[in-house]
Design a protein that fits this description.
Blueprint (H helix, E strand, L loop, with lengths): L9 H23 L7 E11 L2 E12 L1 H17 L8 H28 L3 H34 L1
Antiparallel strand pairs: 1-2
């Protein structure tokens, strides 16, 4: 079966190489929120607000790009890991991939639902930030867990 929407298998390795430092830098950002001076840049913003006061549309603003860079690299790494072909991609793997994506979506939205009901304030913001990445993380964990279990059951 020829799947045109998946990356070649070697993208998974690239994704893992990018994933490790981006997670470490992401955790550092969550804890300390560093803003290295060399990443202070002027950027084009479609929408810029300061706590919903005086919104600016299509403006140039100053920002520190640390969190944007870390977020983009983390996102790219997770996409590479999640959507790279397996060495032996077949219909069975495709079915596991689809089931894992559906279950990850359900699980992610259950967590989001509970977060909307039970979490407030600044903690809600951080959970929403993490929620951007969690669906891919849940997918990768479930997909690889099922593949591991299937390989283990075939080997015995």
């Amino acid at each position: 079966m020829k799947l045109k929407y998946l990356f070649p298998n070697y993208f998974k390795t690239i994704g893992m190489i990018l994933f490790i430092p981006s997670v470490i830098l992401g955790l550092i950002y969550l804890i300390n929120q560093p803003e290295p001076d060399f990443l202070n840049i002027r950027v084009f913003a479609i929408l810029y607000t300061d706590f919903l006061i005086d919104p600016s549309f299509f403006a140039i603003t100053d920002t520190n790009a640390f969190d944007e860079i870390v977020g983009l690299v983390l996102m790219i790494s997770l996409i590479f890991i999640a959507f790279s072909k397996e060495p032996f991609e077949d219909e069975f793997i495709s079915r596991i991939r689809l089931e894992s994506l559906v279950r990850a979506t359900y699980f992610n939205y259950v967590i989001l639902f509970l977060t909307i009901i039970f979490v407030y304030g600044h903690a809600f913001y951080w959970i929403m930030v993490i929620n951007m990445f969690s669906i891919l993380i849940f997918f990768i964990i479930r997909f690889n867990w099922i593949i591991y279990k299937e390989k283990k059951s075939v080997a015995t």
